[in-house]
Design goal:
By secondary structure, the chain is mainly α. It has 2 domains: 226 residues, Citrate Synthase, domain 1 (Orthogonal Bundle), CATH 1.10.580; 97 residues, Orthogonal Bundle (Cytochrome p450-Terp, domain 2). 58% of the residues lie in helices and 3% in strands. It is built from 16 helices and 3 strands. Helix 4 packs across helix 6. The longest helix has 26 residues. It is globular, with a radius of gyration of 21 Å. The structure holds acetyl coenzyme *A and oxaloacetate ion. The site of oxaloacetate ion has 7 residues, from loops. Pathway: Carbohydrate metabolism; tricarboxylic acid cycle; isocitrate from oxaloacetate: step 1/2.
Length: 374
């Protein structure tokens, strides 16, 4: 075996089929079940897109109404979840809180103990809906308690995006903000075999349950090379402060061999298909909040990175400042990604189970030759 036989980071390896989404770097496009993500972001709600990812088709009006009713009924947090979150230190990262809360949700589900209960497709669909409905409440409550604010109960007269913002900020969002947030949730919902989704599929392939797979996926998403980058983008923009400081900041960072968060991608080498749509949403927020300074800073760093390295932004680059303008704390950004991506993770869990093979690659041993104790 030579070095070239080792696929470091599994780069370029096709590990399985998927019918859920197609990431095409050649055409710089992303399809969810065949639909261009830009079209879905333009005309659908996050709930419709979750339905599409799970069922393969967009819902009819009746199916949509039923789906929304079910999702809304599952929003309120259990007292045990409120107690658990309240007991966790506010010094802990919100991703650790979300991971812990999802893990606890698994302990409430006694259907897991039924014969065949872990792999039952109907039960797993119910679990996916439960997680989709609960995550906004978990994320919103955690941000509020860190600010010394009381929990805001969900509303069943609001759609997913409006209710999420309502529970976080305690007021109904302006339509511009609701729209931008809905777009971000759709763009974050699914992206084929990214690291967190692959993690969920690895865990599922052992026939472990949905909660275990999602808890593990949250762990994988936390890192700054993946979902954690949206938070890191904001930290960088906060550090740079103004557009005229961007070039020097970048030169210093590159000289220190730092990775510039929100830039580059394992699959897209010519720009991330989702960035133009999220950038448009960011533009609407810049106008709404009258924050041209943010846009200038955003564009200055993007331009400098293009000139120095010819590396383009990924989705985390525009979504970081967008979430900042909406009023989210920087550490809440990656939990927002979790809330959206759980739609994709659970679609992949179902797909993995429908045609399962244990995921277990080989390694080439390069440690000491055989030796003996004593
Ligand atoms: C939603 C998402 O999860 S999107 C990804 C979010 N992550 C980030 O934004 C983190 C910053 N980006 C990165 O670290 C990388 O671009 C990754 C991890 C996303 C992709 O990495 P890989 O496909 O493994 O590419 P790799 O890291 O090998 O980069 C190739 C070259 O480009 C450079 N490069 C890639 N991205 C960056 C970056 N953001 N800043 C500086 N240099 C970079 C690498 O240093 C490397 O240079 P070299 O060949 O001189 O060593
Ligand atoms: O596909 C990837 O490797 C990372 C990514 O953009 C995502 O998960 O949205």
């Amino acid at each position: 075996m030579t070095d070239t036989d080792i696929k470091k980071g599994l780069a370029g390896v096709v590990a399985d089929y998927t019918a859920i989404s197609k990431v095409n770097p050649e055409t710089n496009s992303l399809l969810y079940r065949g639909y261009p993500v830009q079209e879905l972001a333009e005309s659908c709600s996050f709930e419709q897109v979750a339905y599409l990812l799970w069922h393969g088709e967009l819902p009819t009006d009746d199916e949509r109404a039923e789906f929304e009713k079910h999702e809304r009924s599952l929003r309120p947090l259990d007292e045990r979840t409120k107690k658990l979150i309240s007991a966790l230190p506010t010094s802990a990262h919100p991703m650790d809180v979300v991971r812990t809360a999802v893990s606890q949700l698994g302990t409430f589900d006694d259907t897991l103990l039924r014969p065949g209960g872990v792999t039952d497709a109907n039960l797993n669909e119910g679990r996916a809906m439960y997680l989709l409905a609960q995550l906004p409440a978990i994320v919103a409550f955690d941000q509020r308690r860190r600010r010394g604010e009381d929990l805001v109960e969900p509303r069943d007269d609001l759609g997913y995006a409006a209710n999420f913002l309502w529970m976080t900020f305690g007021e109904e969002p302006h339509e511009v903000v609701e729209r931008a947030f809905n777009v971000s949730m759709i763009l974050y919902a699914e992206h084929s075999f990214n690291a967190s989704t692959f993690t969920a599929r690895v865990v599922t392939s052992t026939l472990a349950d949905v909660y275990s797979a999602v808890t593990a996926a949250i762990g994988a998403l936390k890192g700054p090379l993946h979902g954690g980058a949206n938070e890191a983008v904001m930290e960088a923009l906060d550090e740079i402060k103004t557009a005229d400081a961007a070039e020097k900041w970048l030169d210093d960072a590159l000289a220190e061999k730092r990775k510039i968060m929100g830039f580059g991608h394992r699959v897209y080498k010519n720009g991330d298909s989702r960035v133009p749509t999220m950038k448009q949403a960011l533009d609407t927020l810049v106008e709404h909040y009258d924050r041209r300074d943010m846009l200038e800073l955003y564009e200055a760093l993007e331009t400098a990175m293009g000139e120095r390295k010819n590396i383009k932004p990924n989705l985390d680059y525009p979504s970081g400042p967008a979430y900042n303008l909406m009023g989210f704390d920087t550490q809440t950004f990656t939990p927002l990604f979790v809330a959206a991506r759980v739609a994709g993770w659970t679609a992949h869990i179902a797909e993995q189970l429908a045609n399962n093979a244990l995921i277990r690659p080989l390694s080439e041993y390069n440690g000491p030759d055989e030796r003996h104790v004593g």
